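Blackboard transcription, Thursday session:
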Amino acid sequence: MAIWIEEDAKVLVQGITGKQGMFHAGKMVEYGTNIVGGCTPGKGGQTVELEGKDFPVWNSMTEAITVTDADATVIYVPPPFAAEAIMEAAEAFDSIKGEGVVICITEGIPTLDMIKAVAYVNNRPGIRLIGPNCPGIITPGETGGAKIGIMPGHIHAKGRIGIVSKSGTLTYEAVAQTMSIDEGQSTCIGIGGDPVNGTGFIECLAAFENDPQTVAIVMIGEIGGNAEQEAAAFAAENVSKPIVGFVAGSTAPPGKRMGHAGAIISGGKGTAEEKFEAFKQAGIACANDPSEIGSVLLQALKDAGLR
Amino acid sequence: MNIHEYQGKALLKEFGVPVLEGVHCTSIEQALTAYDNLNSKVVAVKSQIHAGGRGKGTLYHPQTRQEVMQGGVKIAFSKDEVETYATNILGNILVTIQTGDEGKVVKNLYVESGCDIAHEYYLALLVDRDNKSVLIMASTEGGMDIEHVAEHTPDKIHKVVVDVNAGLLGFQKRDLGNSLGLSGMALRSFAKTLNAMYEMFVSQDCAMVEINPLVRTSNDEIVALDAKISFDENAEFRHKNWAQLRDLSEEEDVEIRAKETGLSYVKLDGNIGCLVNGAGLAMATMDVIKLYGGEPANFLDVGGGADEEQVKTAFSMIMEDPNVKGILVNIFGGIMRCDIIARGVIAATEALSLEVPLVVRLAGTNVEQGKEILAASDLNIHPANDLAEGAQKIVSLIGGDE
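(Written on the board underneath:)
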């Protein structure tokens, strides 16, 4: 099962002819992701060679989805054009299939562009947006699997832990922690560190709760906003599976943006302390340090009779 | 990116928001000329810095640190008073609740006409993360600290969420005006002002526009008496004019340079420098240093694709901080390969003749090669297998030096 992205999902790459798009498309093919082609307006009809194989390029997402029947698309388009790329993909998936997953890796999209894009996607209920400013989503398989994004594929293995995080490298850290206790992952999702994004923690928690492959969840938040507090409140009512949590930014000074556009304590709100507190209130097992995630998870699995 | 009040007022005026006549000055002479030209019995003499709480701040002499004057915003009733206030403000250091103890040198002044105030309101437009939209907040409690109002009398804050695709609608402007108790001419003036502000917010890619106070004059006209405006830096590519509005003296020099080289750096007060890839991991690295009894000297994210040169730049930035007594490098290689990082670390330590203890934790892509490269060098680099071990090592290494 896994969530949203099956191991053999058919994936398009928007911006496949660009430097970033081509590099990561190659890495995805190498991992075993079922890449079916790409889209770059004005470059339709060309092909891109990845790992010794040619992949078609289309001018529009409508054309690309019609021909390939893709399930998902991943966007490496530069910030000025990324919001429109999201909307183009959403409209094409919606009108052709009524469903589709749009993953946007691009960092640095203007916030007002994202407000418009998120509203546009939300008007098409079959479409899921993941990101932007995120590492993407990966569903590891027995061999290969679907790696859609920029994460290092080789650190993953198929398993029963679901991971959701705002941060890229902290997600990898969490993956390594699950591996350190001989657990693999069902699906790992980076929801991104921007103030306005698509899929949030709550949707991920709900999907993991309903996924038979997933038995426990690792949730990693960071300072800024109150998505973690809302997710904790949701989890307390709706999630029966064990959750292990960590929040980055306990030492971050107020009013300073910590790398991610959304990682800022403003008006004394959005601190790591209040988020950890919300996690604990909701019965989430907290790690004080990312290197502890493995041991805390192992204990949670034992407590639930899963080890 | 923040701009000064005088720049914000010029922008508001351009979009049709009523503001008072004012002049931007950088010298006492200019302030006196401004007073003559404004032809207003009363003027406000306002310190221009990128921080709130100016009115309640204190000015200090930059060298002696002796107190010069209470209040960074003064009402002057004569030319002599303008001279006194301008003299006390320009070139001195203003410390407010938002500047920290070091304060900020005031280089810019705004001399503004007075007006007849009937009531002070609060108005702000900002990005609402929860609703993923633009939020407008207004209150009858203008001139106050809005966070205090929100905490103690939340019912006095009125909110409108704008559907960006529909835009700010007539009924929303009327409802908000009504909730402030406005009617007739004042309500119409408010609606017009709000409309202009929303247009500005959207077309200029603002992150926040805060007017505190927004006033109703005795003629029932709505006027913006203050202007705190910040822009969404992600949209800089479509606003060439921001380059002129930017006051680099208001930003940390090293933070600006970091940004120019594609790094993200924030200076902190501790003594352990950190060099990390990824914002979340960089924050977590700081947290874990603290957890094991150390104090981080900085946040530094070298990003996903840093090369040898960037790693070197990152090291030199960390070493610019005289407080740094040791460095912890924490890299989870994804796109970034550990062997490249290892070479960068060696090149940087050699080029900078690094003398402080250095702990390096590598994980991810090509980690074995990376570790071998570090081990083969004859430099004094302490390896660590995970973040906790790395933090413990650097904390004990610098502890031993003292």
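Lecturer's comment: Chain A touches chain B through 64 residues (CB under 8 Å).
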